Every structure is written in structure tokens, then in C-alpha cells.
Amino acid sequence: MKANAPASAAPRGARDPIVLTSDALLRDRAEVLIVHQGETYRLRRTRQDKLILTK
């Protein structure tokens, strides 16, 4: 922790986003389901290689 950072500050790594490729998420599939707070979302790769996230 930096000397001038507040004691309650989160470590830098905790705030950095995790970077995942769409290939890592989808693998060889056209879509995956993601559950967030009890709701299911669908992440889909289109024929034009675009990503669509729907509830």
C-alpha cells in the first residue's frame, strides 16, 4: 500500500478489471448463459461475429 493511500483503500489489483477474450468465454459455442443475482443472461455470438447480451 502506498504511504499516502487511506488505510481502507483496496489493493490496486482488486480494482483492476479481469480481461477475458470472447473465445475464452464462448469456447466453440455460439452462446453461453450467465447467471447474475438470480437472473439468467444469454451472451451470443452472431453470424457477423458480433456479441449480444440479452436477459
Jot down its keywords:
alpha+beta; 2 helices; 16% helix
Verbal overview:
This protein has 55 residues and is of the alpha+beta class. The chain has a domain at 30-55. It contains 2 helices and 3 strands. The protein has helices at 12-15, 22-26, and strands spanning 31-36, 39-45, 51-54. The protein has a 3-stranded antiparallel beta sheet. β1 and β2 (39-45) form a beta hairpin. It is extended. It starts with 11 loop residues before the first helix and ends with a strand. 0% of the residues are buried. The mean pLDDT is 85.
Q: Mind sketching the topology for me?
A:
Layout: H1 12-15, H2 22-26, E1 31-36, E2 39-45, E3 51-54
Antiparallel strand pairs: 1-2, 2-3
Q: Mean pLDDT, nearest integer?
A: 85
- Poorly predicted ranges: none
Q: What's the tally of helices?
A: 2
H and E order:
HHEEE
Helicity range: 10-25%
Tell me the span between the first and last alpha carbons: 39 Å
Give the radius of gyration.
Answer: 17 Å
Question: In what range is the share of β-strand residues?
Answer: 25-35%
Gross morphology is extended
Strand adjacency order, main sheet: 1-2-3
Report the structural category.
Answer: alpha+beta
Number of E-state strands: 3
- Main beta sheet strand tally, sense and closure: 3 strands, antiparallel
Summarize the structure.
Helices cover 16% and strands 31% of the residues. With 55 residues, it is an alpha+beta fold. The longest helix is centred in the middle third of the chain and has 5 residues.
